[in-house]
From TrEMBL:
Signal sequence bounds: none
Organism for this UniProt entry: Photorhabdus temperata subsp. temperata Meg1
Keywords: Membrane, Transmembrane, Transmembrane helix
Lineage start: Bacteria, Pseudomonadati, Pseudomonadota, Gammaproteobacteria, Enterobacterales
Keyword Flavoprotein listed: no
Membrane-crossing residue ranges in chain numbering: 12-31, 37-56, 114-132, 144-175, 187-205, 245-267, 317-336, 343-360, 366-385
Keyword Transmembrane helix annotated: yes
Protein name stated in the entry: Oligosaccharide repeat unit polymerase
Amino acid sequence: MMNNGKIIVNRMYYFAILLFLIQIIHLILFTTAPTSSVMLTSLLLYSFIFLNFFIIKKSSMTLSLFNINANKLLFFLVLGALGKLISRYDYIQEWLQGGLTLSRNSEIAGKGGWYSYLSILFYPATILYFLANKEVLQKKTYLLCNVTIIAFLLIDFIFVGTRNVPIFIILIYLLTRKKQYKFNGKTFLTLLLLIIGFLIIFDYTTTTRLNGIFSWQIHLQNTISTQVVGINETTLKFLNHYASFLYPLIFLTHYLAHSIGELVYLLSHEYSFGSNGPIYLISEFCTAGLCDKGYYNDLILSENIRAGVYQTIFGSLLYDFGISIGILIFILIFSFNSLSIILSKKIGVINLMLLIILILSPIENYLYGGMGLIQIVMTYIIYLISITKIKSNG
């Protein structure tokens, strides 16, 4: 059964509630940062998110406006897979020689080339593939596409050690899949296996990317994400003595929750937002070879006192545009997106992606990071090329 817009929006709404509960529970029970300012910031941000979903849910929107021809997507999937394969070859070679530590820190892997322009097509085409009518594909083609997508997701997890983009892609699939979720034993088992899988990947990409002997206890005490929002001593002692197997789970929830505290820290200690112009925004275009990525990375590191940690969507927006304009841009983008859905009574591809970015805004700026602006734009361009025009009977 084809998903309608309300089913997709309801799934997103419940996912936003889940993230809110994870953040609040983690901050209160496990960290040193459940201050009134942190709680107030979290409530304000989630109030805006829930208000958007409440208004959309109350509207008469019923349809999902995708109408994508899967056959037309194959061209972009093949080109993207070719570029992806070439771009990941050096990572795999380095990983085979020295594991994830070597592949992530190698000067050879990830240096880019002409194939980067092709690899940019892969994940946008993958997102559209999830939304497309795949019944028009031959069975062998359908299976090959699925295997290719799964293979590159695993390559990015295992050999590159990246998490943001693959998780973003998986999240889109889970939120938009055509089959409805039923609350039964099979669904519960699938959910449990999915959580265990995420924890295994999260544990692997954390413990194997660092040199030397890894200790979860030392990591939780000294990693950059716990310098401002620390794990409290009670939690650390309990994990160390009774439940060391829960270290990855606590770090995962910390990964999802610490951004709010980081934003409050920024607002308390930084007074030069926007002084160097939109450095984060410009750096997004460096991925397409339009500017010097190294130069802008160095500029960001010198400007942002907490560069390297998640700072909600506002961390980069504030540095780019200042506090007032940054907040205004955030409100306008997502308010106009909700208004577009309400007026058209449909949810389109960009509407969908912006809603997911809104849900993830208390964690990080997925408008810049995650997929990134270039791949978001490519998603829409490929969508326009691949769309199937529906003739009206009226």
